[in-house]
Design a protein that fits this description.
The chain has 2 domains: 135 residues, Aspartate Aminotransferase, domain 1 (Alpha-Beta Complex), CATH 3.90.1150.10; 242 residues, Type I PLP-dependent aspartate aminotransferase-like (Major domain) (Aspartate Aminotransferase, domain 2). The chain is 39% helix and 14% strand. The protein contains 13 helices and 14 strands. Strand 1 and strand 2 form a beta hairpin. The structure holds pyridoxal-5'-phosphate. The site of pyridoxal-5'-phosphate has 15 residues, from helix 3.
Length: 406
């Protein structure tokens, strides 16, 4: 028997392939694939060209810009395309730091649970003389706005707090934090890479100045994203060159990728009233099944204020990397936390910031669901997980906990 079926066939047995790692990246929505394919085949023009080929490409960008604007409740002219979330975060932080430095604002504030795109940009700027402050989170993984208030000074240029965390899914009180930042004259940036397309976003209600998104986290392509910049915000360009993107970001635009971003934004918005509910039902079933079926498990982070698709669970006495590999061999793709740090044995900086002891920062697995996941897949994982965990515990001689703990 071959091994090439869609589900994969191992020694005559069908291996159910299950993808539970949508916070790392997502498969394309069918409309995205169709739109990108058409643009790749038919619309090769440069959007800066005056002729018909260029104008067709420009119209594709206009449509995509409009779709992104609708997704976040903004004006199209405020949307600047980027190569993804990392560039959008860099643009927001470095752009604000450079623009506000002459006014004596050389201090930057972020939460301790930001993505590396923010944390490592802070580190790079700290090496060049900017002051940086990381605000702690509570044990639920939520930023306390009062801690942000305490961190601010009259020299703070920018506050950067993510809307939803990539590892545990918790949603942060962005509007409250933005009000505090503005009281001190600082700009407010939010990394909405893990929330865009998953919860409704309205930049006016959030009261932010800058908001970053990335297409591949909501069924769009990799390498396409955007930074929303409130009209009138002072921000230096970090990519200089031609006058693309209203001179905010130079470089010939990635037209097929951005067509994909636009199509993904349309598709995500169309499903916003239904898909989060479907995913929350699946996620809650998975979570309840794990807690009931595998002793010594607990959910990490606030369960009441999370994006619908994410759960992060710790397994007592189990090395997360070993569980990830065992699940992969069983056909189930999960993650130990942020994709950028998996493959290393670094404990999660998010769980560490929540005050978890070392063993708990290294025994946690993120399950993140998405468009193609089904009840049958959830049931299958609930079914196989107890045996896998028990085997790993017996291999390492870990104590088998008597009962599930919540
Ligand atoms: N911010 C967050 C919260 C993320 O989860 C990610 C991706 O993992 C990024 C930023 C980076 O986005 P991109 O992969 O588009 O560069």
């Amino acid at each position: 028997m071959g091994s090439k079926s869609r589900n994969g066939i191992m020694k005559g047995k069908v291996l159910m392939r299950i993808y539970f790692d949508h916070n790392a990246t997502t498969p394309l929505h069918p409309d995205v694939a169709a739109s990108m394919t058409r643009v790749l085949k038919e619309d090769f023009g440069n959007p800066s060209s005056v002729h018909q080929y260029g104008q067709r490409a420009k119209a594709i960008l206009d449509d995509a810009r409009g779709a992104v604007a609708v997704l976040v409740g903004a004006e199209p002219a405020e949307v600047v395309f980027t190569s993804g979330g990392t560039e959008a975060d860099n643009f927001a932080i470095r752009g604000a730091a450079e623009a506000l430095e002459p006014a004596g604002r050389r201090h930057l504030v972020a939460s301790a649970i930001e993505h590396e795109a923010v944390l490592n940009t802070f580190k790079a700027l700290a090496k060049r003389g900017w002051q940086t402050t990381l605000v702690p989170v509570d044990a639920r993984g939520v930023v306390d706005p009062d801690r942000v208030r305490a961190a601010l000074t009259d020299t703070t240029a920018l506050v950067s707090v993510m809307q939803a965390n990539n590892e545990i899914g918790t949603i942060q009180p962005i509007a409250e934090i933005a009000a505090i930042a503005h009281e001190r004259g600082a700009l407010m940036h939010t990394d909405a890479v893990q929330s865009a397309g998953k919860i409704p976003i309205d930049v006016a209600a959030l009261d932010v100045d800058l908001l970053a998104i990335s297409a591949h986290k909501f069924n769009g392509p990799k390498g396409a994203g955007a930074l929303w910049i409130r009209r009138g915000t002072r921000l230096a360009a970090i990519l200089t060159g031609g006058r693309h993107e209203r001179s905010r970001r130079a470089g010939t635009e990635n037209v097929p990728g951005l067509a994909g971003l636009g199509a993904a934004a349309v598709a995500a918005r169309a499903k916003l009233a239904t898909e989060p509910l479907r995913l929350a039902t699946l996620r809650d079933r998975l979570e309840a099944g794990i807690l009931a079926g595998v002793p010594g498990t607990a959910v990490n982070g606030a369960r009441d204020s999370r994006v619908a698709n994410t759960t992060n669970v710790s397994f007592d006495g189990v090395e997360a990397e070993s569980l990830l590999i065992a699940l992969d061999l069983a056909g189930v793709a999960v993650s130990t936390g942020s994709a950028c740090s998996s493959g290393t044995l670094e404990p999660s900086h998010v769980l560490r910031a929540m005050g978890f002891p070392p063993h708990r920062t290294q025994n946690s697995i993120r399950f993140s669901l998405g468009q193609d996941n089904t009840e049958a897949e959830v049931a299958h994982v609930i079914d196989i997980l107890p045996g896998i965990v028990q085997k790993l515990r017996s291999l390492t001689g870990a104590r088998q906990p008597a009962s599930a703990r919540h």
